[in-house]
Write a structure and sequence with these properties.
Transcription Regulator spoIIAA; alpha/beta; 3 helices; five-stranded mixed sheet; 5 strands
Length: about 100
């Protein structure tokens, strides 16, 4: 199961929970892109409760990053679990996205 919630207190924070896979990807894309459209600022994706993301989910994040870069903003991946962090590292996306660990 996948959940996404948005918090706009002192920044645009999107909390991701559960798994982003082929079954939840279209919902994730729609909700993420809608949230970015509301933005006008950097987006922080709080991944502390995200247990899994597949290649489809990573592709959606890359597309979202391209959109937000056009607005001169960025996406920060915050507090990813080790499994999620490993996928970013293996794919090289840890060099594309700003990655923040707990306490950073």
């Amino acid at each position: 199961m996948f959940e996404l919630s948005v918090e706009n207190t002192g920044g645009h924070v999107i909390h991701l929970k559960g798994e982003i896979d082929i079954y939840s990807a279209s919902d994730f894309k729609e909700r993420l892109y809608n949230s970015i459209g509301e933005g006008g600022q950097d987006v922080i994706l709080d991944c502390s409760d995200l247990s899994y993301i597949d290649s489809m989910g990573l592709g959606i994040l890359v597309g979202a990053l391209k959109r937000i870069k056009q607005q001169n903003h960025d996406i920060v991946i915050k507090n990813p679990k080790s499994t999620v962090r490993k996928l970013f590292r293996i794919t090289g996306l840890d060099k594309v996205f700003i990655m923040e660990e707990a306490g950073a």
